[in-house]
Design goal:
Number of strands: 6
Strand content: 5-15%
Structural class: alpha/beta
Order of helices and strands: EHHHHHEHEHEHEHE
Largest sheet: 6 strands, parallel
Helix content: 40-55%
CATH class of the largest domain: Alpha Beta
Radius of gyration: 17 Å
Number of domains: 2
CATH superfamily of the largest domain: HAD superfamily/HAD-like
Oligomer: single chain
Mean pLDDT: 95
């Protein structure tokens, strides 16, 4: 089972999109947290920067991304937690003998920070993959195919837990079972990608006939 990180394992979407929207507004882009979620969740920062620059019609300042990262990481350190119920769900899945890993649009240092702050890092030691390792990020299937290959599994025997349209689209394109977590997104958006949906992490093991 392949887990996305932000919004699936770590409860980071509100923090990340609040700081992103604030930084984008400072450059003249009219956007709030909700619009940031709609337009950017699930994408790599490389893609996000490209979309913001396209909307502005100019390049962002050279230090913009580094400043945004510093502000976001400071807010993570001040108040980031795990997604409710996710530790128990992951532990139940692992106890049943299902191998797990993380595959995220986030950078390795970001995932090291967020998984570390939330105490989830030991659950995925040595099994964390980033979009920086592949040519194309989500919604292309490259990252999930890369994770399956590194884990030594046939993509058709893999399931992906995602909370974004780009992520669920990537999972389906990879030929994997897509499980759409709807805690912070309209379920219909994930259903339209071909994903099965669930709204509480406590329900995830049950999708495999397991007790949480």
């Amino acid at each position: 089972m392949i887990f996305d990180c932000d919004g699936v394992l770590v409860d980071s979407e509100a923090i990340a999109n609040r700081t992103l929207a604030r930084a984008a507004r400072a450059q003249g882009l009219a956007i709030d947290e909700g619009e940031s979620r709609r337009r950017f969740v699930g994408l790599s920062m490389k893609s996000v920067v490209a979309l913001i620059e396209e909307a502005l019609g100019r390049a962002l300042p050279p230090a913009w991304l580094a400043d945004l990262q510093a502000e976001t990481y400071a807010e993570f350190r001040a108040g980031l937690g795990p997604v409710p119920g996710v530790r128990a769900a992951v532990e139940a899945i692992q106890a049943a003998g299902i191998e797990t890993c993380v595959a995220s649009s986030g950078t390795p240092d970001k995932m090291a920070l967020t998984l570390g702050l939330t105490g989830l890092a030991p659950l995925f030691d040595g099994r964390v993959f980033s979009a920086v390792e592949v040519a194309r990020g989500k919604p292309a299937p490259d990252l999930f195919l890369h994770a399956a290959a590194r884990m030594g599994h046939d993509p058709a025997l893999c399931a992906v837990v995602e909370d974004s349209v780009p992520g669920a689209t990537a999972a389906v394109a990879a030929g994997m079972r897509a499980l759409g977590f709807t805690r912070e997104i309209d379920a219909a958006l994930l259903v339209a990608t071909g994903a099965e949906t669930f709204s509480h992490m406590a329900d995830l093991p049950g999708l495999f006939g397991l007790e949480p």
